[in-house]
Design a protein that fits this description.
The protein is mostly helical and 219 residues long. The protein is 67% helix and 0% strand. It is built from eight helices and no strands.
Amino acid sequence: MREAEVRRLLAANLLCALAIVLATLGPAFLLDGFSVLGTHLTWLCVCSVCVATLNIILHLVFKPNQSPKRRSFGHKISRFLKCCIYFFMSCILFHAIIVLYGAPLIELVTETFLFAVLLSTFTTLQCLCLLGPNIQAWIRVFSKNGAVSIWESSLQITSVCSILGAWFGAFPIPLDWDRPWQVWPISCSLGATFGYMAGLIIAPLWIHWNRKQLTYKSR
């Protein structure tokens, strides 16, 4: 395993974490009354757009999983459209799962859907950037010992941390504390965001710590 590749991964992950910080602090200088709690829907949109844009740019710059085959322009357009469809389907699926776990079915639909978009940005978008619209590759990566590169290991860690963060974020909602961050879906989206940022930091550190044990083989 090359140290240079681990440093590239660390740089990319730190930039993603920085994007979230800028999405949280930056709009306050442009939008009157902006705050994560007070204008949470706006923050969800800004955060999702910033993270998605940076992930796509980083994928184009670092090209961590570039295929040696040259693709036609038509193939690239078809691949892009499939990625858009997969991302939208992911948002719908996350929305349905969130509702099944207790979110309001009729009320607060916009809040729930934007939270689903945030989760899709933290998880599905990374899969699309790294693996493309290939469900079999997704299943392989998230199976035991399925990762074949440090980028795929990082994808595993950040996705799992995001989901766990959202899940743990739901625990304070039913408590009778009457805090503004208990309003749906603030604690869950913040939990997912903190989980994602934790995963971004943990992934390269874990890979560096276990670099001697990690042996990636092409599949």
